[in-house]
Amino acid sequence: MASERQGDFDAALADLNRAVELLPRSASTHAARSRLRYWANDLDGAVADASQAIALDTNTPSAYGTRAWARYGKGNVSGAIQDCQAAIRLLQTDAPGLAVEQGLLNFIRGEYEPAIASWQQAIQDNPQLQAKTPALD
Fold first, then answer.
1. Dihedral over Cα of 46, 13, 56, 87: its sign
2. Which of 48, 78, 79, 122 is a good FRET partner for 102, with 20 to 30 A between their CA atoms?
3. Any idea what the CATH number is for the domain that residue 49 is in?
4. pTM for this one?
5. How many CA atoms lie within 13 A of 16 on its CB side?
6. What is the average per-residue pLDDT within 89-100?
7. Closest Cα to residue 36, out of 72, 77, 5?
């Protein structure tokens, strides 16, 4: 995490690769590597790691969220919607996380104003999310 925060994604990936090697049954480790791979635009790797995290623990909303973004990036809209819906079901008690995933679901459906409103609410609830929210190209 320190390497990632410093912008050294190669070191962060090396650390996460080692963590996965040492803890192959850790859903959170696979989910973390999935997120990093997504940010590095390795969409196939992001999907693979998120899928592994979900296989290890179906109650990992961050893995569903990352896989949704990666699937959307690869053009798999129906898969992205399914993952958003799974994350939303798991996040019913986590308002900021729920708002992020609901925003993604709205975005995928072409509902841009509700997506923006959801993301603005998430950032208002948790300002640290702004640095983590992917830019929309």
1. negative
2. 48
3. 1.25.40.10
4. 0.76
5. 24
6. 74
7. 5
